[in-house]
Structure formats: structure tokens, C-alpha cells
Amino acid sequence: DGDLPIARKKSLQRFLEKRKERCRAPPPDAG
Amino acid sequence: PPMAGIVNQETLQQRLQALIEGARESWTYAIFWQSSVDVSNGASFLAWGDGYYKGCEEDKRKMLPSPATSAADQEHRKKVLRELNSLISGAAVAGEDAVDEEVTDTEWFFLVSMTQSFLNGAGFPGHVLFTAAPAWVAGTERLAAAGCERVRQAQTFGIQTMVCVPVGGGVVEFGSTDLIYQNIDIVDKVKVLFNFNFGGGG
Questions:
Q1: CA nearest A19: which of B23, B31, B96?
Q2: What is the mean pLDDT of residues B92-108?
Q3: Count of alpha carbons within 13 Å of A22, Cβ hemisphere only?
Q4: Could you report the per-residue pLDDT of B116-172, keeping only the tens digit for each?
Q5: Degrees (nearest 5) of the Cα angle B185, B13, B43?
């Protein structure tokens, strides 16, 4: 990943982490 | 070429988040396109600086497959996300990194945006950099008929409103799956949050 510009890599990292957290969260109608 | 300033990267993410989370309307994402100069030919261009993805209602209903996305599209998106996960973590994808949930249209649009850049005057952000004036496009028909490929592309992924505002060191773009008519408040807020881009930042 050496050639992935640092700005894109940081944003991608943050996006993927937030997505994992969102996917772990129970669906809104889980009550 | 625009004044090439040192953009305060540290506070960029917080400012993008403050813009989206603090807004009255429901915005899906915000991106800071950073202005740069190609040393080989002196051309100024915009490239990905940072982005904030809030998501939208569609993300919360993601258990239901989106009718517009074919199974093949979904499989391709999940494959790309698995590869990105291993690219970032530097290891083969473990169970936790497996991508089971559907990759929504707006998530995919945000990811695709990370790969894009725009010459001064080209594309929606490049046009705004060139004119140095904010631009607001609202309504599915308007987005679909826009002269910029990026705006037409956004519409295919469910975006109904797209805004670009020129700031110090680049252009701030934000969009929504909602139809949001032009209002000066959020444009002013962008200028307050981002026009201290150089050095200390606010």
C-alpha cells in the first residue's frame, strides 16, 4: 500500500472502521 | 494557480464532521478536495484531501437488498471492500473483516470518490475551483442532466443534492440523498469552518 496517498489511506481506514462498527450495531428495529 | 496553502490536516476531519452533523438538513457525506500543482507541467488540480461519511436511511435498512443493485454488483462491491480491508490491515482478511452486509450505493459512491481527482476547471469541484463561486445542484433531473460526469454519477447512486464551495486550499463538496434547496446558511458555515485552512485552523 506504499503508493496509496496518505490522505486517501487515512480516510479509507476511518471509513472501513466506522463501517465495521455500524455493521456490528443492532438494526434500528431490534427494539 | 490558486494560492497553494498548507492545509491544516489535523482539524480537517473534525471540520467536515461539524459541517455535516451540525447541519439542520440531513447530509450524507462531505469531502475536502485539496488543491495541488502537478510539478511536471504546472497544472493545478484537486485531489482527495479528506472525507466524512455520515450515511443515510438506506444504510440502516441495509439488511434488505437494494433492488437497484444486482447480485453481481453486490458481490463485486463486497470483494473490493474485502481487498481494501486487507490492504489497510496489511493481512489476509480475517473473519472480522469479512464483508457480509450489503455495500449501499452511497457507500460505494463515497469510496469511488477517493479515487478521483480534477484538473482546475474540470468536473464539478474543478469548475468551482475555477469560477471561485459556490455551486448548488438539487433535484434528480438536474443532477441527471448536469454537464459534469461526477454529478451525473452521484445521481445514479441516489444523491439528490450536491454542493461545492471554494475555500482556502481547495473545495468542500457535500451531498445528500434528500432534496435540499439552496440555503446560504450552510454555505456561510463552510466558509467559517474552512477559510482558516492555512496554518493554525479554527
A1: B96
A2: 76
A3: 24
A4: 999 999 999 999 999 999 999 999 999 999 999 999 999 999 999 999 999 999 999
A5: 90
The pLDDT tens digits for B17-57 are 999 999 999 999 999 999 999 999 999 999 999 999 998 76
Residue B145, SS3 per DSSP = coil
**Do B90 and A13 form a contact (C-beta atoms < 8 A)?**
no
CB contact under 8 A, B48 and A14: no
Phi-psi region of B51 (alpha: psi -120 to 50; beta: other; left: phi over 0): beta
Q: Residue B188: which H helix or E strand, with range?
A: helix B184-194
Q: Give this complex's ipTM.
A: 0.82
Contacts of B59 in chain A (CB under 8 A): 22
CB contact (8 A) between residue B48 and residue A12: no
Angle between helices B149-156 and B105-113 (to 10 degrees): 150
Query: What pLDDT is recorded for position B199?
Result: 42
Task: Indicate yes or no: CB of B88 within 8 angstroms of CB of A28.
Answer: no
Please check whether residue A7 touches B, CB under 8 A. Answer: yes
Cell 438539487 locates to: B138
Contacts of A18 in chain B (CB under 8 A): 53
* Mean pLDDT in residue range A9-26: 86
Amino acid at B113: S
